[in-house]
Amino acid sequence: MTWGATSKLFHWVGAALIFYLVIHGFWMVTFPAREARFGHYEAHAAVGYALIAVTLLRLAWRWTHAVPALPADAPRWERAAAHAGHWGLYVLMLASAASGWALAGTFRRPLDSFFGWFRVPALVGDNSLHGALEQAHALLSWALALFVVVHIASAFYHLAWRKDDVMQRMLP
Questions:
Q1: What are phi and psi of 61, to 5 degrees?
Q2: Which of 7, 34, 78, 111 is 20 to 30 Å from 72 at the Cα level?
Q3: How far is residue 141 from each of residues 10, 131, 135, measured CA to CA in Å?
Q4: What is the spatial distance between Cα 5 and Cα 91, in angstroms, rounded to a whole number?
Q5: Contact call for residues 144 and 22 (beta carbons, < 8 A)
Q6: Residue of 109, 94, 97 whose CA lies nearest to 39
Q7: Rounded distance, CA 169 to CA 70, Å?
Q8: Which residues contact 6 (CB under 8 A, 6 or more apart)?
Q9: pTM
Q10: Where are the domains of the chain?
Q11: Which of 120, 121, 123 is nearest to 98 (CA)?
């Protein structure tokens, strides 16, 4: 059994959003604190809101549709690692994005626009929490980046070492 087209779409759209957010996030904080930097923060926040929506829809889809089984010959530790890795990715996607959403409300000008289409309510409005939320968001984002690297390495492990169809099942 392979992943369905909708599952693949959620996977690859989510992957693209995460790659953008991680790379853009680590890059944009190197800018001096000026008005130009704020525009990057606004775009970053809007893409983060999109990641939350895509992840929640993806989880709803996953809970209501069949999931392909892991290879029958996979050792128990691989099955446990696969489940922990996947659920760890979901938790970190939501936690890093939610911490960013909370952080967005603590700026002098809140980051509350979804690409100018509508306003997103702030989760936190207390500016005194800005530093703690910024640190939490950075740590969760680094953890997510690490999990993504392990996820990609695991896919190539299945392709090159185990020579099974785990990676191919998710390809478009």
A1: -65, -45
A2: 7
A3: 20, 15, 10
A4: 23
A5: yes
A6: 109
A7: 11
A8: 61, 65
A9: 0.91
A10: 5-170
A11: 123
| pLDDT beneath 50, residues of the chain | none
Residue 27 is encoded by which pair of tokens?
Answer: 């890059």
Which CATH code fits 5-170? Answer: 1.20.950.20
The pLDDT tens digits of the residues spanning 78-104 come to 999 999 999 999 999 999 999 999 999
pLDDT on residue 23 = 95
Tokens standing for residue 125 = 């409005």
Q: Which two tokens stand for residue 36?
A: 């130009």
CB atoms within 10 A of CB 2: 12
SS3 of 80-122: the string is HHHHHHHHHHHHHHHHHHHHHHHHHCCCCCCCCECCCCCECCC
